[in-house]
Amino acid sequence: MAPVTISLPDGRGVVLRGFIDRVDRAEGAFRVIDYKSGRDSKLDACAANLLDGGRAVQLALYARAIRDQERTEGRPVPVVSALYWFCTTRGNFRQRQMVAGDDTDAALDAVVAGIDAGVRAGCFPQVPGVYQDFFGSWENCSFCDYDGLCPAGRDSLYEAKSGDRELAPYRALQADQPGDEP
Ligand code: SF4
Q1: 80 with 63: CB under 8 angstroms?
Q2: Quick check: CB of 157 below 6 Å from ligand 1?
Q3: CA distance 175 to 50
Q4: Atom of ligand 1 nearest to the CA of 158
Q5: Is 170 exposed, middle or buried (0-12, 13-18, 19+ CB in 10 A)?
Q6: Three-class DSSP category at 168
Q7: Out of 20, 44, 84, 138, which could bridge 128 as a Cys pair, Cβ 3.0 to 4.6 Å?
Q8: pLDDT category, 178, cuts 50, 70, 90?
Q9: Which atom of ligand 1 is nearest to the CA of 140?
Q10: What is the pLDDT of residue 182?
Q11: What residue owns the CA closest to ligand 1's atom 1?
Q12: What pLDDT, in 10s, does the model give residues 91-150?
């Protein structure tokens, strides 16, 4: 697919490239599938929760690439069905689906603008999430390259800093996540 350009409020653009595992197309309808080999991460991505507070932008981005392609080529802009397919016993063969349209595009724009604002403000908080005894790690750290560098008390550090003014861009992304503060 062609790269996706997300326009920012100040006129700059963020260009994102990638590969989609699978795209099904039939009579102008599209379905995007992203295969996951790991455990079901219970991602709940929709426009209403700002794509899980910016943690689940992948499907929205894939759908955007298809919608932009159809728009560029002068065809009607489709609503796209997109799903994560946890296709192993580890993931219990679960599917988590979203339907991506104008509201999803708007949510993606808002998330990217929020992340851009945070990066430009130097907002890089450690956000480990909940400690999971079963896995012996924090929910956000298992696959992070910095797991061996971040301190053992990273959750306490986050709690101590979570109200800081400098973390406002991050908190704005979490504003629609009731009960989901890391
Ligand atoms: S290891 Fe550190 S940087 Fe990585 S997710 Fe955990 S807290 Fe964040």
Answers
A1: yes
A2: no
A3: 9
A4: 7
A5: buried
A6: helix
A7: 138
A8: very low
A9: 5
A10: 41
A11: 147
A12: 889 999 999 999 999 999 999 999 999 999 888 888 998 898 888 889 889 889 999 999
